[in-house]
Amino acid sequence: MNLVKSILGSWYKYDWIRVPFEIVFVILPVAFTIRTFIFGLYQVPTGSMETTLLVGERFVADKLTYWTRPPKRGEIIAFNDPTIEYSDSTIVNFWQRYVSWNTQNWTKRVIGIPGDHVKGVIEEGHPVVYL
Q1: Could you give the CA distance from residue 11 to residue 124 in angstroms, rounded to a whole number?
Q2: What is the value of pTM for the model shown?
Q3: What are the φ/ψ torsions at residue 107 (nearest 5 degrees)?
Q4: Exposure winner among 11, 56, 92, 97, fewest CB in 10 A?
Q5: Sign of the C-alpha dihedral computed for residues 68, 71, 77 and 82 taken in this order
């Protein structure tokens, strides 16, 4: 915290100034960065993942993996609802996609990857997916 000490100078010795300063300008930005770009907390919104994940269950997902490689078959992924209408403004669009934490998410299992042919049919009253 030498940087904080150099910024606050003689005021550093007062806890009532130093502690709020460290919380607002050190801890909150680090937590914001981790929550926005590294890990996300998601909630399963529908029953489409039952029996693996139940409606309302929460899970933590890492956001960095898919910057380095594409999703693999069988992985569970979470992503923003694709029906959301994003703003045309670059800044507002960035905020909506990456920063806003109240966006509805979808939680799904990857069943097909590029090059696969997927077919969904109803057999005996039950949905079946063929790869």
Answers
A1: 75
A2: 0.65
A3: -120, 120
A4: 56
A5: positive
Task: Quick: pLDDT tens for 44-64.
Answer: 888 888 888 899 898 988 888
Amino acid in the structure at residue 54: L
Give the C-alpha separation, 22 to 16, whole Å: 11
Distance CA(76)–CA(87), nearest Å, equals: 28
Residue 51 is given by DSSP the state: T
- Asked if residue 46 lies in contact with residue 80, where contact means CB atoms within 8 angstroms, the answer is no
Question: Taking the CA of residue 37 as centre, how many other CA atoms within 13 Å lie in the half-sphere pointing to its CB?
Answer: 7
For residue 51, whether the previous peptide bond is cis, meaning omega lies within 30 degrees of 0, is yes
Task: Give dist(CA 61, CA 77) in Å, integer.
Answer: 8
